Structure formats: structure tokens, C-alpha cells
Amino acid sequence: MARAHDKYQRLIDFCKTLQPTPTAVAHPCDESSLKGAVDAAQMGLITPILVGPRARIEGVAKECNLRIAGFEFVDTAHSHESAARAVEVVRAGKAEALMKGSLHTDELMAEVVKRDTGLRTERRVSHCFVFDVPTYAETLIVTDAAVNIAPTLEDKIDIVQNAIDLAHALRFAEVRVAILSAMETVNPKVPSTIEAAALCKMADRKQIVGAILDGPLALDNAISLESVAIKKIDSPVAGRANVLVVPDLDAGNMLAKSLSFLAQADAAGIVLGARVPIILTSRADSLTTRLASCAVADLVAQARREKSTKAVA
């Protein structure tokens, strides 16, 4: 089945009209990570600051025929130093986004979450996939399938709010959040249903803002209007969700990979809750997915700039 990229293409085309986001690229020492940064720069999505062993990066560029002349470099000895120096570049205000290169995600995130020298905020860091699913009309955000393993209810408040803020940065006309479980009724024996109900009540009390929440909802109830009609669920979210909040990393990872491999979806990845958006790409990502991840970071960075301007005013 040929993959459709209509939603991603509209996103990328819009972001081409914006100023490129200065981005610290941590350790782009293989073809896929360096090419991702170069392609995004050529599209006008980012202005890369390459943080890593300069000679090694230049060797990869020469071998793969990638043009990096004019890019700013921060020379390092190894991947651990690359992660630390990339975070330093952001803390110094020289970059408004951080992009993972060919180092391990854990290595980069360890520097991000350091209390004194990292990029922590009052929010918990969480990951969102932004899915372009050919069979679903909406752009679909799934959280958290990559960072928080077994989030508590307190963690989920930030996870949900990070996803809502992302949806607003992506200019969703209405943000409809489904808190997923295995069923659509509250069951004291299933903790995820209790937490879903609590999150929805928090939204009623304005502890979570900017969206319509409903849950617990099973996946079919969240995205299928036919299922909603059969089960007679009365909800402004059911069947029309554009944000899916999973109970834990296991469920999120399985859902994300099911969408990718069974529904032919593409998944742009972004980490939120830090001082700047963090672009996480995989060696298996397509060019369109890599560019979409950079475009998502562009919109998040722009939303932060606008918020900062309003706060000063």
C-alpha cells in the first residue's frame, strides 16, 4: 500500500514560510542523522548547529555527498560530550530546538533532565507521536509511547497538558482528548479507568486546560463513530479524538507500532516539557517523517516565542 503524506506535506509546506529554527543537532555522526539535519536545513525548516566530533562529521558528509559548508560547529570528543554541549548551546540561548543525532536517546535525555545543568521546567518531560494516518481524517497525537514507562496520575496531568499545548501549536481547531483504557466504563479493578475519570474531572475543574477530555474510552470508542453509535456513547470526543493518551509505555509503544506497520501511518516524534522542543528521529524514519518532526518543532518553538512575547507585553 502506498503511503499518503497529505497531512505532513501541508505541515511542512506551512513551516517553509516561517523563519528556520536554530537547532542544536547532537552527535550527527552517521548518514541518516546528518542527512536529516541537512535536508531540513535545505527546506528552510532549521538552522543546524552541529555538535559532535568535527572531523568525523565532515568525513560522513564527504562520504555521503552532503553539503555542510557554512554550518556552525561545536567540536566534541565523543557522544557523551556531544549531548552535554548540545544542551549547553540551548541553555546559552543559541538554539530554540534540540535534535538527536546518532547517539542513544537515553544519553541525550540524561543531560536534558539534569537538575542544575539540563533543560528542565516545572513540567514533566513527555513524548508525543504526531501521526499521519492515511485512513483517519484527523492528524493524531499519541502520548506517551517513548519516555514515561509507568506514569502516575500526577505525571499524566503534565503528559496530557503537554499534548494539548502541542495540539494548539499545530493549530488544531478543537482539541479532543481521549484517555484510553480497555473499556469505556469506570471499573475499580482497572486502575487506568480510575485515572481516566480523575483526569476528566481535573479538566472540569480547570486543572487541565485547552481541550475537551473524555475517558475512559477504549480505542474503538475513541476513533470510530460506528463503534460509538453501536455502544450509544454520548460524548463530544468519542469517535472524533485527535489526541490519544495511553495508560503506559507498553500500551503506547504497541499502539504506535500498530499504526505504523498495520495502518501505514507515519510518526513524527517530539519531546515536550523541556525548555525547547526535542526532535527524536529513528534511523528507520522516512525523509518525510524526519522533515515533519522538524516542522513540528518549528511550530512548538514559534508558539513559545509568541507566549514569551505576550508575557513581556
Topology:
Blueprint: H1 6-15, E1 21-26, H2 31-42, E2 46-52, H3 54-64, E3 72-75, H4 79-91, E4 97-100, H5 105-112, E5 126-132, E6 140-143, H6 153-169, E7 176-180, H7 191-204, E8 212-217, H8 219-223, H9 225-231, E9 243-245, H10 249-262, E10 266-272, E11 278-279, H11 287-312
Parallel strand pairs: 1-2, 1-4, 2-3, 4-11, 6-9, 7-8, 7-9
Antiparallel strand pairs: 5-6, 5-10, 10-11
Distance between the termini: 51 Å
Count up the helices: 11
By CATH, the topology of one domain is Isopropylmalate Dehydrogenase
Task: Give helix % range.
Answer: 40-55%
- Residue windows where pLDDT falls under 50 for at least 5 positions: none
The H/E string reads HEHEHEHEHEEHEHEHHEHEEH
What structural class do you assign from the helix and strand content?
alpha/beta
CATH architecture of one domain: 3-Layer(aba) Sandwich
Count of extended strands:
11
CATH superfamily of one domain: Isopropylmalate Dehydrogenase
Strand order of the largest sheet: 3-2-1-4-11-10-5-6-9-7-8
CATH class term of one domain: Alpha Beta
Measured by DSSP, the beta-strand proportion falls in 15-25%
Q: What average pLDDT do the residues reach?
A: 94
Broad shape? globular
Radius of gyration: 20 Å
Largest sheet: 11 strands, mixed
